[in-house]
Design goal:
85 residues; alpha/beta; three-stranded parallel beta sheet; 39% helix; 21% strand
Length: 85
């Protein structure tokens, strides 16, 4: 099983910490991860975000849209993630 994960985080150190945690978790469960990083909410919204099973959103991003606003925008655009779980 491959889990597609988007990480929206503008600070590299926190993105790397999250990667480490997620990869450790995946190793314990014997599953594969595909991690994709985005430094801004606008970069993430430009993609086909419905391809991702999970999105980790930073609350405080260095731009006009924070993580909570991004989450609201995703819901307005009917993001529900893949439905095969």
């Amino acid at each position: 099983m491959n889990i597609y994960i988007a990480v929206v985080e503008d600070e590299l150190i926190y993105a790397e910490q999250l990667d480490k945690i997620l990869n450790h978790w995946a190793k314990q469960l014997n599953c594969a991860l595909s991690l994709v990083h985005f430094k801004s909410a606008s970069d993430f919204l430009k993609t086909d975000f419905n391809l991702y099973d999970v999105a980790f959103l930073d609350i405080q991003l260095d731009e006009t849209m924070d993580g909570l606003s991004l989450a609201q925008s995703l819901r307005k655009n009917e993001y529900q993630g893949p439905s095969y779980f």
